[in-house]
Amino acid sequence: MKGLEGPVETLSPSPAVRFSSRVQLRNVKSIASYSWINGATPSIAVPGYPRIWKNTTVTTVPADSGFCYFDHNALFMGHRSPLIPIFAAVDSLHDDFQYRDLDLITDRNSLRKLLRCIDQQHDKTFRIDLDLLGKTCLLTRREETLTDTIKEFHGFGVEYERAATKPRRGSEEETSHHRIISYNFWGLKILLRFAIDACAEPESEDDSFLASFSSLSIGARGPSTLSDGPAYSSRFGMKVKLTSPRSVLPQSSVIEIKTRAARREVDWKESYPQLYLSQTPYLYLARYTRGTFGPVEKVHINSQEMASHAREAEAAMAKLEALLSALLKAVRKYGEGVPLTLVYRAGKLQLYKRKEGTGEPFGKDISSKFQRAAII
């Protein structure tokens, strides 16, 4: 609640929908991607490269230990907006991306939190900061803490992922790969960022692999290859390393990895929306018994075995669209330049005014991208 004034509006966490026609994500486009690089100045590799699934059998790994990270973007950006890397990555691959046409820019994490309060899956408090630029609402994820130390058994997820994947040659210094896509969500135009665990191994590691990406539109800057190693630039106070190939991986290669004890069922009410909202096609599920892993189960989001979970998610997705539309209407009513925050607490979803100077404001170099050209 730091930096917040009183609530100005209450939203229904489970809005009624007037019709039950199926919600679909339409016109899905891969826009950009990046990986973080450790450094004193926030640094990203664009488009970067995720870790690659090794297609080898992993039977045992040590239990996860040490630090766990909740939001790499906020951690690396410090006191600056964690949304800035989106603009740095997109502008590195597009000459004139039309931000002004968007309704929402958000992380998948924020949409999943809204879904949980819709379905009342838990009563955890959360906060999302809201800023209106032009007609576009930017949702900034807020976490109470960005890191934690694992003090007791916490599963094998991190260690298994490390053992089952490998970095692409030349991408060893990259970490925490993020992907940016756009789509229409029942009339709402959304730019979405999400982290991915891995990708399917390419047939080859040379530049001929670029041909398989030729169907993706990366704006006037690409696709193209770089001639003499990486190029560097500075965007919005960030260091950007351009990597080759200058193309975003096809959506069909993206993989989500999960580990589960063999006796535990997957919570599809939680996991299916994670895949659906980011249109991640594959879930690789590794089950273990007393620390020993069996063969990986590879599940496709559009497979027959997922059909029942898709039907169960339809009502929640319709309510999510209704809630996002109501939120967008409220934010636009207060207008550009009025910082707002959405807080879910004790079953209530309320909109607060944020004190001027709090949060992570966007400079003119970003806000100007959302302005309509003057009609002469």
Question: Main traits of this protein?
Answer:
21% helix; 376 residues; Decapping nuclease; 7 helices; 5-stranded mixed β-sheet; single chain; alpha+beta
Radius of gyration over all CA atoms, rounded: 21 Å
CA-CA gap between termini: 45 Å
Q: What series of H and E elements makes up the topology?
A: EEEEEHHEHEEEHEEEEEEEHEEEHEEH
Largest sheet: 12 strands, mixed
Low-pLDDT segments? 205-229
Number of strands: 21
Instruction: Give average pLDDT, whole number.
Output: 88
**Tally of separate helices:** 7
Biggest β-sheet: strands ordered side by side in the sheet: 1-21-20-7-8-6-12-11-2-3-15-14
Which of globular, elongated, flat, extended, rod-shaped describes the shape? globular
User: Quaternary state, please?
Assistant: single chain
Specify the structural class: alpha+beta
Helix coverage percent: 10-25%
In terms of DSSP E residues, the strand content is 25-35%
Provide the number of structural domains.
1
Protein name: Decapping nuclease
